[in-house]
Write a structure and sequence with these properties.
Layout: E1 3-9, H1 11-14, H2 22-32, E2 36-43, H3 47-58, E3 63-67, H4 78-86, E4 90-92, H5 94-106, H6 113-116, E5 120-122, E6 126-128, E7 137-142, E8 145-150, H7 154-175, E9 181-187, H8 193-206, E10 211-217, E11 220-228, H9 232-250, H10 261-272, E12 276-280, H11 286-291, E13 301-306, H12 310-317, H13 321-327, H14 332-346, E14 350-356, E15 371-377, E16 382-388, H15 393-414
Parallel strand pairs: 1-2, 1-3, 3-8, 12-13, 12-14
Antiparallel strand pairs: 4-5, 6-7, 7-8, 9-11, 10-11, 14-15, 15-16
Helix pairs in contact: 3-4, 8-9, 10-15
Length: 418
């Protein structure tokens, strides 16, 4: 088994000033490559601690990845610690220096000696191109182990990993004899983890060579089937049969595009040349934000309305005063009017609305915190569905936006009746 360790470096991570998303992302990427993430730690900007942590973790891991501490300021000491660990000096990498000079010239900025220090790397290392920033990644192969040092800026870290490290690790895997996992992921939406387990757990019990994992999130549950590379040829037919049965048991909850919900939703609407408008109350624009996160979203998303108050609902989307007085802002009737009217106003194929009580205040016995109505409208019908989620405000907002997307996706993809 190929084991990896992730080391996040930075005092700001330890004191909670910055949330460490890098380690989670790297863990997912390494796992998808079949690498077993054996350790993930967060440490301070301290040279002795960096050296000690790398030394300790390299004893039991084949791949060591650090993030943070590669910038031009005094607290960026990772490179010095790495050079000290391997007993080498820092030298100027000419390719990186040229990249820095061009980077600053394109932006009309004057480069300083401090900026040029980012071109210094350990003499035993190879610089990894940073196409979206300045500090390069660093790669060292020593005693048949791989060491990677990446910037702490998530966008830069991800870019260097995807453009460089993916390929290095795959080459490494092809040259060693140790086993590694190969994964097949099935994306689902609109069904909870417990219900999935109820339907397919017998498959897990019957197949010892296939490792099942259920990975829930607000957007849905990913089912991960893992097998060792050395067993692939032996059980390839079994794996295909298990995957087929999983899809059969879950049918209308499976995302056929084999992608996260928002990606699959966009791809499906684009392929059918459909567009959408939204009306949001308790989510405050979160659904619109979700729909515009991906490149190409302008092909499906016409626009949206944040109608938080009753006044906004009436003036912007013509919700009837009598509807609000008789049924309330959080009701089936209001959700339907919002969905239908935003569709008509922006002349789209579909309208989606969300109105609810996110909490922690505002709930009643009849409408407790977590009560959400989601409306869906097209040229044939307008309907609304009631949900009672949780008592946590952030969770309710997340669940609301993904549930709205899930409902429309499954209605269109599988002709699900609402």
């Amino acid at each position: 088994m190929i084991n990896a360790a992730i080391i996040a470096i930075g005092d700001e991570l330890l004191i909670g000033e910055t949330i460490n998303t890098n380690s989670a992302w790297l863990g997912q990427e390494l796992t998808s490559l079949g690498i077993n993430v054996n350790s993930s730690v967060t440490i301070s900007d301290n040279q002795e601690q960096i050296i000690g942590t790398i030394s300790k973790l390299s004893e039991i891991n084949d791949i060591i990845i650090t993030t943070g501490g590669l910038g031009p300021t005094k607290d960026d000491i990772t490179k010095k610690a790495i050079a000290s660990h391997f007993g080498v000096d820092l030298i100027e990498d000419q390719k990186t220096k040229l990249h820095l000079l061009n980077y600053f010239k394109r932006r009309g900025r004057v480069i300083t000696d401090i900026h040029l220090e980012q071109a210094l790397i350990p003499s035993c290392a190879v610089a990894l191109d940073n196409s979206v920033g300045t500090a390069p990644g660093i790669f060292i192969k020593h005693s048949n182990k791989l060491y990677f040092n990446l910037p702490g800026v998530p966008r830069e870290m991800k870019s260097i990993f995807q453009e460089n490290i993916n390929f290095i690790i795959n080459d490494y895997k092809s040259l060693i004899t140790e086993d590694f996992f190969i994964y097949k992921t099935i994306y689902t939406t609109g069904i909870v983890e417990s219900e999935i387990a109820k339907r397919i757990s017998y498959l897990d019990d019957e197949n010892d060579t296939i490792k099942f994992a259920y990975l829930p999130s607000y957007s849905g549950v990913r089912i991960r089937l893992g097998i060792l590379n050395s067993e692939l040829k032996i059980i390839e037919n079994i794996l295909a049969d298990v995957e087929s049965k999983v899809r059969q048991h879950l049918y209308s909850y499976v995302i056929e595009e084999e992608k996260p919900l928002n990606e699959a939703f966009q791809e499906y609407l684009i392929s059918n040349r459909w567009n959408i408008a939204v009306a949001e109350s308790c989510t405050g624009g979160a659904l619109g934000k979700l729909l515009t996160e991906l490149s190409g979203s302008s092909k499906i998303f016409e626009g949206g309305f944040i109608v938080y108050s009753n006044k906004a609902k009436q003036e912007l989307l013509n919700v009837q005063k009598s509807t609000l007085e008789n049924f309330g802002a959080v009701s089936e009737q209001t959700a339907m009017e919002l969905a239908n009217n935003c569709r008509l106003k922006l002349k789209t194929d579909f309208g989606l609305s969300i109105t609810g009580i996110a909490g922690p205040n505002g709930g009643t016995k009849e409408k407790p915190v977590g009560t959400v109505w989601i409306g869906i409208s097209d040229s044939k019908e307008t309907k609304a569905i009631k949900f009672v989620f949780l008592k946590n405000r952030d969770a309710n907002r997340e669940l609301s936006k993904f549930t709205a997307l899930s409902l429309l996706y499954r209605k269109l993809k599988y002709n699900i009746e609402l």
